[in-house]
Amino acid sequence: MDFSSLITTRYSVRAYRADPVPEGVLNRVLEAARLAPTAANRQPFRILVIPTAGREAELRRVYDRAWFVQAPLVLIMCALPGEAWTRSDGLNYALVDATIAMDHLILAATEAGLGTCWVAAFDPVAARDVLGLSEGMEPVALTPLGYPADAPRPKQRKPLADLVDRERW
Ligand SMILES: Cc1cc2nc3c(=O)[nH]c(=O)nc-3n(C[C@H](O)[C@H](O)[C@H](O)COP(=O)(O)O)c2cc1C
User: Fold this and answer.
1) Is this model's pTM higher than 0.90 or not?
2) pLDDT digits (tens, 9 = 90+) for 159-169
């Protein structure tokens, strides 16, 4: 799939089939995150791959939507601020790095015919508890990973003129 088709095809999938994700396909998706650029190449992120089977109730403590646990896998992108590059004014880039890696992963999943949905509105306290995250791991975004059982909707986006200024603003 060329890049233009890829970014047009991706949408937030909120219904999944239970079919398994083949290990080779999962590895390609994870490899795309590994290849993402990060500030000073620090690679300050970790991805947890959680099979949903048997853990539906626990995972719904983290994000309480039926579709969240319909796919065979949930991926958790965590930033590691302690390993990240910081700007001269102290701004830590761990969230930026983890977000770029997550976007790589999501686009690779789309190319493989898989569905994803960025989830940020989860309960971070429950996430720490259920996923056993260590102190330095900051959960940034979650996504189910599985084959879609819904269909894309037309994209609602602001016109480019509302998003881009030239020369000055
Ligand atoms: C950082 C981020 C956080 C999001 N969090 C949620 C979420 O918690 N729950 C949800 O259903 N969708 C979430 N979304 C999906 C957005 O609602 C969705 O991307 C947007 O409406 C555009 O639709 P599309 O992804 O189908 O193009 C999130 C998206 C992003 C980028």
Assistant:
1) yes
2) 999 999 998 87
